[in-house]
Protein 1
Amino acid sequence: MDPIKLPPAAEDVRKEIKGIIPETSTSSHQAAEIEPKIRKDGNKTYLGDWLANKISFLKKEMHIGDAIGDGWGWHLVYFSNSTELQNDRKQGFLVPLSEEITLTPGGVLQEGFYMNITTEPVVSSGATAIFIVPRN
């Protein structure tokens, strides 16, 4: 699980998304385009059409779209607790919105990079990331 540098256009989209998520934004304004939901585990997930469009473009610019096709979805999560990443199919791509996140096992994943995830690592508390996964 080695980090892969995001292509420049994908990094631009990642920064745009990062700018509207309260846990990663430098602005105190919460965008109306996103819908936060608190999960049972205490972590927060974000939804919305604006995010869906941006993440679709992000996948395209990461050049993983041809490899994964349209049958893949995404989760944008703020991990308020250290949490095992649910990855039943043992495949996915993790894109950090935080400056860095720690994966155990896996090490540190810094912003500007993404990682192909084939296990169920524990994600550090305080991390915010997009997890691109096969739809069930």
Protein 2
Amino acid sequence: MFDPFLNDPDSNLGWYLAAQRAGLSALFRDQKPEQALCAELVPDLIDRLDHDLQQMGRRSYAVVTPGPIDPVACDYLVLGSRLGTEVIRRKLFASAERKTVPSYFQTVSDTNLWREHCAILDQIDPTTARARTIIKDVRRGFRIFETAAQSQQD
């Protein structure tokens, strides 16, 4: 979904950041923040994205929220994406001076939160309705980000 950015980061950085902003905002719009491990992280990420987009003179185009998503699914999407963002940062900005790296990429990934999330997942029987809901909502979350990516204008 984000191949255009990975294949040509210089041309597509603004698009990628705008899509991340729209996706995170939509994902958390209908959430009860206290229920997700990543609840304190998301406002900081959105603030960083807003700052980066403002610096670039870009805006993010909002997408429709499909309603609340299970907090464990939100954690999977957000915390997992933070690990992926760290890999992208190391690959794309390894030779850049820190000040040239967008602030969104400067947030350190909290591996302790990811471990805590994995421990929560380990407690959920994969044959239960709750597990099926989490899987369904993770898929819904990915569709939110797909829609967010498609909604951003170049």
